[in-house]
Design goal:
By secondary structure, the protein is mainly beta. It is built from no helices and 11 strands. The model has no long low-confidence stretch (mean pLDDT 94).
Amino acid sequence: VQLQASGGGLVQAGGSLRLSCARSGRSFTTYRMGWFRQAPGKEREFVAAIRWSGGSTDYADSVKGRFTISRDNAKNTVYLQMNSLKPEDTAVYHCAAGAYSGDYTFSSSYDFWGQGTLVTVSS
């Protein structure tokens, strides 16, 4: 299973970006997909997650109301729409896929990871 993240870039504070994560490779029954981020010198942190079946979503408090996670089952792609970006959102964003339920905020609940895409928000 390969996860290809894209859509990162440089944006001014208050701006928007949409990240995409395309899934390919062998058949994989996905329970949940998520986005995590890692800023320089900091640990990886949970951002958002979506159940592949049903589409229920969860967000970190720091992005709630600004970010929206969605998926397109036909395209095997998950998106992260990021609005009202802040300098503290600057990080490498990784998408991940998990086959089983578990604490969606834990990176250990996910089985496959993409390479990450850099988001830089200038003040």
